[in-house]
Design goal:
With 377 residues, the protein is mainly α. 61% of the residues lie in helices and 4% in strands. It has 16 helices and four strands.
Length: 377
Amino acid sequence: MTETGFEKVPARDRRRFPGISSRAYEHPADRSALVALRKLTGFDTVFKAVSGLLPERSLRLLFLSESVRVGETQFPELYAMLRDACYILDLEKVPQMYVQQDPRPNAMCIGLDEPIIVVTTSLVELLDEEEMRAVVGHEVGHALSGHSVYRTILLFLTNLALKVAWIPLGNVAIMTLVTALREWFRKSELSADRAGLLVGQDLQASMRGLMKIAGGNHLSEMNVDAFLAQAEEYEASGDLRDSVLKILNLLPRTHPFTTVRAAELKKWAESRDFQRLMDGHYPRRDEDKDTSVTDSFRQSAAHYADSVRTSKDPLMKLVGDLAGGAGDLGGRLRDKFTAAAAGGSAAGKEKSGGGDGTAPGGPKGGAEGEEGATGRG
């Protein structure tokens, strides 16, 4: 076959997905955010203008001159993983891949005309073969979904915002786009995690990789169940003030928190949709043109509604109650914050007063989830 084809089958027996559409693994929130992004007023104009400004050729030359290009004679094992991933997801043209010296474990897929995959030396050294296979599949999933285009624009706009920060209105306009792009990109990471699982077809390897990104190469000191429990604790703990802080902590990030990614991936791996996909029932690429935008929004709306209904986060529970007609917003917010403040005051008095002489207990729950190291791109 040609260079863009595949002469070798995957290293071990894995299910292949001929003609698979990225819709098969995309998170509903990713699809809705992407559609919304394209519907932003003037976005097409901005996109065309930015595309002309982006130094993509310079970027390619930079990686060619400063990084190691993966191939049959350089990082051949990584190259085999890349070809396997493209074979499994039926991506005809194998993207160029580079290894870049960097102490931070990271990977990304960028480029407007053609995607480029970049992985750092720290990530290569951190992960074992099956964990790395999931990462490569993650990045190939980005390429198949077309995420690399928006990732490149996000990088450009973020840098541009720093340069024009002294221009009030210009900075506000750019940061509005940056915020929308970050929100979409966080959702796209959940989609790419799913693509990584489809390529690796080893949930435990995907979990281990995420744990290592959060806590380093200390698997003997970590536990998958305890790691997933952190995500549940993060979602459910605290009051409305903590809910607001979670949002503020998340806004500047391009990636969801690592424990949350692990929990989302495990949930999908246990779903009926995943099982049907593994059984060969999935949307095909040649059907994409017939996809209904209305249906996509409807599915996304149903997903958001279900997320609000099942969420244990105090703010989401309040939103769910309000959607069900329980009380007025102002009154419930006041009651929640008043109760939280009163509880804190009472706790302080108990701690200082002593009472029965028993030492007061420490705060419950410990850390509310790990922020983790740099996530995959």
